[in-house]
Amino acid sequence: MRKVITYGTYDMLHQGHINLLRRAKELGDYLIVGVTSDSFDRERGKLNVRNNVLERVEAVKATGYADQIIIEDYVGQKIDDIQKYDVDVFAIGSDWEGKFDYLNEYCKVVYLPRTEGISSTMLREGSQEVYRIGVIGTGRIARRFVPESKVVSGIEVVSVLNPDSREAEAFKNTFGLNGSYQDFDAFIATVDAVYIASPHLTHYDYCKRSLLAGKHVLCEIPFVLSGDEARELYELAASRKLVLLEASKTAHCPGFMHLVTLVKSGIIGDVVDVKASLSKMVDPPTRELNKEEAGGCVTEHGPLTLMALIKLLGRDIQDFHFHSRMQDGVDIFTNGIINFPHATSSITLGIGVKTEGNLIVSGTKGYLYVPAPWWLTDYFEVRYEDQTKNKKYFYSYDGDGLRYEIQEFISMIVNNRLSSYRLRRRESIAIAEMIANYRNHINVTEI
Ligand code: CTP
């Protein structure tokens, strides 16, 4: 029996796929089709896949050409599969001409003619409404947002709001947007959704006004500086069936999401301690060091570190205490101890004190170590007493990493999904509450 194998994503299955599968089947007696897993696609930067792996497998099955369907989940799997299933022919479309010649060592490689004029990318783009996004604020993160938005389909940044007309106009010209505005009402009329990247203390007001105007909101961290404000905004969004998402970059990056699922699945046993540190030195004058602009390391770095603690240990915080070194009314270094019913945790943050920036999750069977910068999570290790069991994990973290949260934001809008498992609304509220406790000087000691 002559066995043929082929691979693909097979998103929004189309005539090109069907032709390819038919031709592949004609090369032998038995056809194995490898369908990419959702996480594998995400890892290799394919962020816009519309159908999930089950739907894609069903679609391939429905063509009637596949004798066996397998899931492709890692780089290098093709070699393993060819040997494991004793494959004679590897077939793939001619758009890959030459790319799989290395497989000639294991079986015959055939490039089949590709069907012209159709692809999943074309179908996705043709079928999707493009949401117009307005950016509020023109600072560093806003400048990273626009290029990142270009790799996510279904979104176009069209306008910018900044009370300073020169700044707004310069931002518009740099990124080729349609309009720059100083007036909120004129701005909001031009968009379907907003990305809020303005100074911290303006977030609440801009979120509320945008939601009241019927627009979806992606809001930079720190989202808001009080649990009550966070709760009120999520309720407002839900009552209007609008998406409100905290732009917690790390919560959306593939490596961190996998870290959470690995820990939850028990690979290091019961989690007993989490230590998250984040330090980035800043030079004055800058808003991070300005008390009037809610500067300080808890407002700057609290959102990501607290997010990690809450994702890994839950929201049932029993007690907490912070120790801070202050300078001109802002904390330039803070160490916080936060205890949960069966676990301890700590955050160590600096903007005027340099320290390590790693994440350590300790459990009853082993621990997980993420070196600095853990918040990009492109690499981590799982370590055990028996070092031969240690494992290293690598992930891609493409571009500036904002594409992952943008993609989730659009997916929530398209699918009418008001909540994201990557960062639940109640988790986002818990983060805001903890930052508010700190800002209200509850259990804070100055050192
Ligand atoms: N294929 C083809 N003709 C097309 C499109 C795809 O023969 N018009 C083939 C590919 O060469 C590959 C298989 O179908 O062997 C699965 O490809 P996949 O990447 O899933 O499809 P695309 O439509 O190319 O997807 P995308 O636009 O997301 O890259």
Question: Terminal Cα separation, in Å?
Answer: 76 Å
The low-pLDDT segments are: none
CATH class of the largest domain: Alpha Beta
Count every beta strand, where a strand is a DSSP E run of 2 or more residues: 20
Radius of gyration: 25 Å
Strand content: 25-35%
Measured as a percent range, the helix fraction is 25-40%
Tell me which ligands are bound.
cytidine-5'-triphosphate
Major β-sheet profile: 9 strands, mixed
Shape: globular
Structural descriptors:
447 residues, alpha/beta, Rossmann fold, Dihydrodipicolinate Reductase, domain 2, 3 domains, six-stranded parallel β-sheet, 15 helices, globular, binds cytidine-5'-triphosphate
What can you see in these coordinates?
By secondary structure, the chain is of the alpha/beta class. It contains 15 helices and 20 strands. The protein has helices at 15-26, 38-43, 53-63, 77-84, 120-127, 140-149, 165-175, 184-188, 203-212, 227-239, 249-252, 254-264, 297-313, 403-414, 425-439; strands at 3-8, 30-36, 68-72, 89-93, 108-112, 131-136, 155-161, 179-181, 193-196, 216-219, 244-246, 271-279, 319-327, 330-340, 343-350, 359-363, 367-370, 379-383, 391-394, 444-446. The longest helix is centred in the C-terminal third of the chain and has 17 residues, at 297-313. It starts with a strand and ends with a strand. It binds cytidine-5'-triphosphate (CTP). The site of cytidine-5'-triphosphate has 18 residues, from β1, α1, β4 and α5.
